[in-house]
Amino acid sequence: MLTGARPGFGNRISHSHRRTSRRFDPNIQSKRYWLASEGRHVRLRLSAKGIKTVDTLGVEAAVARIRARGVKV
To answer: What domains does the chain contain, in order, with CATH numbers?
Structure first.
């Protein structure tokens, strides 16, 4: 929700060096934060990097950024 992380794509390479498609999924976690300004908890789906970003910015600023992107929280 915060960083806009999407899956990356690449190739699986076997021992014989044949290539097949694969997908690198982001590390998505569901985390609950207390939003003091609204007096309620919000549940955010964040990547591991997004969780660190919330720790740096603070919950209020992070939720404001998510809402600015047009995502309902």
So the answer is: 26-72 (2.30.170.40)
Q: CA-to-CA distance for 55 and 8, rounded, in angstroms?
A: 25
In sequence order, the 6+-apart residues with CB closer than 8 A to the CB of 18 are none
* Residues in the chain, pLDDT under 50: none
Task: Give the per-residue pLDDT at 48.
Answer: 95
Judge whether 29 and 44 are in contact, CB under 8 Å.
no
